[in-house]
Each structure stands twice: as C-alpha cells, then as structure tokens.
Amino acid sequence: MNYTIRQLQVFKAVADHNSFTKASEALHLTQPAISIQFKSFTEQFDFPLIEYHGRELVLTEFGHRVLKEVNSIWDKIEALSTINQSAFEHLSGTLKVASVSTGKYIMPYFLTTFLQNNPGVNLSMDVTNKRSVTQSLDENLIDFALVSTLPENLECHEEVLMENELVLVSNAEKAQEISHANLATQKFLLREAGSATRQAMEQFLKKSQLKSSNKITLTSNEAVKQSVLAGLGISVMPLIGIRSELERGRLKIIPHEKLPIKSSWRLIWRSDKSFSPVAKAFLDHIKDQKQNIMDTYFVD
Fold first, then answer.
1. What share of the chain is helix, strand, coil (3-state, %, to 5)?
2. What pLDDT does residue 106 have?
C-alpha cells in the first residue's frame, strides 16, 4: 500500500462532508481531481469505504475504521507543521559565528537585538584571524562568518553589511615627524600571516613601492593598536577599530594617495549550508534590520 498525503486529505474531506462536491470546494480542487485521488486511495483496500443510501454518500463500517486511522495520521501531520512553526516562534539552540578579529567592533551590534528577542538562543562566537575563520567554514563548523574579503576556493553566499575602510595611522607625537620623504624609514607594524589586515598592509606597501625592511609582526589588531599608541611604529588599520582614539586625538591618520583601502564587511555562509531554524531566523533578522543597525550605531 502506498498512501499519499493528498489521498489522505481527499478521503478525510469526502468523509467529513459526505460529498465529493463539498470536498472539492473545501480543498479548492476540481471534482475530477477529487474523484481520481479518492479512487486511488480506496482501491488499495479490499473492502468498500463508502456506499450510497439513495443519493446520500455514507461511510461503511470499514470506512469508519479507516477514517479513524486517517484522522490519527492527520493529527500527526498537523503536529509536524506546528513543530516547524514553533521552531521559529520559540527559537532554541546555538548560533555559531566566527569573525575575523577586527569584526569584533561590529558583530556584537548585529547580534544584540536578535539575542534579546530570542532568549532561548545561545551564541558561540570565535574571534580569530581570516585563516582560522576560513578553516571553520571549510569544515562546516559554523553557521556564519564575518569577513572583509571572501575566502578563496570555497563557494559562499554573502550578505553585505557595511563599508570597511583602512587607513595609515601613527600616534599623535610621531605623526608630526612623518612625511612622504621619510615614510620608507618608518617602522611598520603588521598583523600575522593569514590576516586580511596584513594583506591590506602588504598591498599598500607594494602599490606605494615602499620596500622597508623595518617591520614588526603582531598577532592581534589590539596589539597593533596599542603598539602604535606607544610609538613603536605605524600601521594600516581598519577605521572601525580606532574611532575612539582618533576622536580623542591619540591617533592620527597619515594622508596618502594610495589610501584609504576600501572593502566591505560581509556575513558569509557556505553555499551548501543547511540552516537550522536559529540560523535561518538570524539571517532573516540581518536582512530585515541591517540598515537600522547601521543607521543607529555606525552613521555619524
């Protein structure tokens, strides 16, 4: 026996209404379609399910037994639909996100309202370098990643969030001494290999034909910022992470014709990702609220 959901639905409607005509109206199907589905269902039984008393359609005793089981099955089908809907109305589970290190300055703002509105959702967020973020995506360990440059050799979908701008900075004291003429003699502070900020810095040095060998490598954006503040050197840094220091005059932007470097912050996910209800709801939230979030927190 091979019953389809449509066949169960048609049999239930005919039995409930005692009429093919009323069943077709209730299901918005033509009467021929109702008749075909009903026939396909009833022919799988060895005993008749309906009979006629004059013009009146009634269920046989065997038909009532079948209807009882069909109603039970239909209750379970509706329960499945309820579970699917409640998964969105009462979200629970873990949202797994990875962010490149500079993304820590913006990712919390795109998470706050969603988590406040869904107290049953837990958050797992790894803030690391681009190489580790890409590895987590490749191994399908996360739902989303926040990056400024797309990973190579990995097919992803994306939702662009906001502009990412990188500038050359020094502390206030050193800025007074720096000029184009002595730029190559400065000590350059770089992020570690695999960092998108490191790639931007190397891109700037190459385009500017600055072949300084006076470089220091540091393993976090915060370490670079603190080192620049201390006067250890200068660096290309994302504007989003140094706004406070610029406003207070502790850091200064060094103008250069090859800067700023502009890219975009983007939320990405594997093109073959199967979303959980939590992940699907978060993406819907981002698409619906990203402009409000940017206007509230990131537009001067």
1. 50, 25, 30
2. 92
